[in-house]
Amino acid sequence: EAQVTQNPRYLITVTGKKLTVTCSQNMNHEYMSWYRQDPGLGLRQIYYSMNVEVTDKGDVPEGYKVSRKEKRNFPLILESPSPNQTSLYFCASSLFRATNEKLFFGSGTQLSVL
Amino acid sequence: DAKTTQPNSMESNEEEPVHLPCNHSTISGTDYIHWYRQLPSQGPEYVIHGLTSNVNNRMASLAIAEDRKSSTLILHRATLRDAAVYYCILRYFGNEKLTFGTGTRLTIIP
User: Which residues have C-beta within 8 Å of that of residue A15, sequence separation ≥ 6?
Assistant: First the structure.
């Protein structure tokens, strides 16, 4: 089954403790992206990647890192999480950045930073 | 960057058609119009997309204005399961920064 898999689904951590949220897709997609969703603010893009070793900043990249060493995986890294990074996070992928290709989303990761 | 404008919320009765509008007055000729929806506690899911002509699929129809400055997502017979937030976005080469905005929250009244 074609899917985007995020782990974990829920995560509670403390300020400053490094964490990684994993994202994996099994569709051989080139384009992958991370979003955060906060009440009243909609979905905002954090980082995106157009292929292996090619990443770029979205609208809200501060405090986050990403890597794309393999086509299928696009982990989101919070080196020193802070409470303002408490949010619902979604990973998405697309065959390419092609304009007529649809995005597939993961089920989300609810992160709480205490 | 081309942007979209949607109403914050809409209500519709169950089993009636729903027309969700989206304005994109700065759209360019190569911009595709995409619609996604987000059910409660789930990630967004693709609904439909189009370029110039109206499009139909098993989930919905997309009506695109002749000047392409607006579009309408049509749910032909709304069910309670269609209650969701609906997002209209534009995809074009160079717009890898896909901003979804806040969308339209659709409430279905039984």
Answer: A80, A81, A82, A83, A113, A114
